[in-house]
C-alpha cells in the first residue's frame, strides 16, 4: 500500500526541519530584503494568537508536503521498472524532485509577482527556499531507510 511504506519519522523530522529552514532562509539569510519586499513597512504586529495559528497551519502543511513528497518518491522509484529508467539513481531522483518543485511551487511563487505585485526578489527567495527544501526532503527520504 502506498502510505504503509512511508517513513513517518522522516515525515516528522522533515516537517520540523522545513520550519527551521524557512526561518533561516526568510528571517536570517534574506531577512531585510525579503521582509521589506514581502511585507512593506509594518504598521502593526500580529498578535501572539495569530502568530501561533500561522505556525500551526504551516507545520501541518509541512507534514502534508513531506507525506506527498514521500509518496511521489516511492512512485518515481517504482516507475523505473515500468518505464525503463533507473529508479535507484539519486541523480535521477534529484531531477525528478526539481521537476516536482518547479511544477508545484512556481505557480504560487510567481503568482506573488503577477497577482500580488511583490518583487522578483520575493519570487527568487521563495523559489530558492522551495528548491532547497525539496532537496532536503529528497536526501532525508532517500538515505533514511
From TrEMBL:
<feature type="transmembrane region" description="Helical">
    <location>
        <begin position="89"/>
        <end position="108"/>
    </location>
</feature>
<dbReference type="InterPro" id="IPR013879">
    <property type="entry name" value="DUF1761"/>
</dbReference>
<feature type="transmembrane region" description="Helical">
    <location>
        <begin position="120"/>
        <end position="144"/>
    </location>
</feature>
<protein>
    <submittedName>
        <fullName>DUF1761 domain-containing protein</fullName>
    </submittedName>
</protein>
<dbReference type="Pfam" id="PF08570">
    <property type="entry name" value="DUF1761"/>
</dbReference>
<keyword id="KW-0812">Transmembrane</keyword>
<feature type="transmembrane region" description="Helical">
    <location>
        <begin position="6"/>
        <end position="30"/>
    </location>
</feature>
<feature type="transmembrane region" description="Helical">
    <location>
        <begin position="55"/>
        <end position="77"/>
    </location>
</feature>
<keyword id="KW-1133">Transmembrane helix</keyword>
<keyword id="KW-0472">Membrane</keyword>
